[in-house]
Amino acid sequence: MSEDSKKLAAASLGVVVLVAVLPAVLLLSPVAFGAGSTSRLTAVLTFAGVLVTASVSLIGLMLNRQTERRLAHKQAEQQRQLRLDAAMRAGQLISPADSGTAHPAGMASGLLALTKLDNADLAVALLVDLWPEEGEKEQSKISDETAILVIDAALRSTSSNAQLVAAELLCRHATKLNVSQSLHWPSAVDGSWNPAYRPKTKLLILEALVRMATASEPNEGALRSVAVRLYGLWREEPRASTRGCIGKLIKVVFDRLCQFRHKELVHGIQMVALSDLERAAASAAENPDSYLNDLSDNLANRLKEWAPSCQGYPIHPGALASAAG
User: Fold this and answer.
1) Does the keyword Transmembrane apply (predicted)?
2) pTM to 2 decimals?
């Protein structure tokens, strides 16, 4: 029972006691209420009537609140049961009961259904086995685009474990993704950032972006995509050490972007100028942890080796949309 319910029950009990005891006390007390016993009896009955009305109202209010609480609890249980049933049906799409091979469309539907049912942890855990590694046969597996949708849902969830697993999978499969393809990068970290991510989750996403970029076809569009994504991460990141690491990567990209004639980068409704990137590049700093510093230097060097080869315009489908972020 909640504190408010306890107070309400105590008040109701007090009123009942008053109704039972106070009339007798008033009738037997020596205090004069009027010019005779009739006046006294009338006053006592009037007072008792008021107390009875108040007690009935309090008891009714208490019963009503208990009923509402019981109904709310029942509805919550029903919602949990419905979610559980829906999750079980989604699981059956991924792994049929007849032990047959699930169709890729069925697996994709099941995983995406789990994310909509606030089961991102389960969806991203199943993705570990359902997303084929590079070079692995993709029959009876889900596509890269579906996997990115599941990862995006996990990164948007409130579960730090789901976020970490999603970042790990993104990093693991990064070399088979295309930095210029919008469907190959989760929108949760596409020009935006969640400062509440664990440090390991943040570093995995950074590494995934670099690995994806250096494995993609080098052109100006790919370089611009890397630049605006890195800047979005840098802009929202509060930790100085992480900003310093991102600044290293932006500095490498900035030096190459300065050689192109286009001085503005469009990302959605935002315009990122070279001066913004220059300010971010100026924040490049050594990490206090020498080992992490060496690893970040290695990532920056890989990006530095890739950046000079970025030239010309992309010719893949969707290149125009990619240019707009």
Assistant:
1) yes
2) 0.71
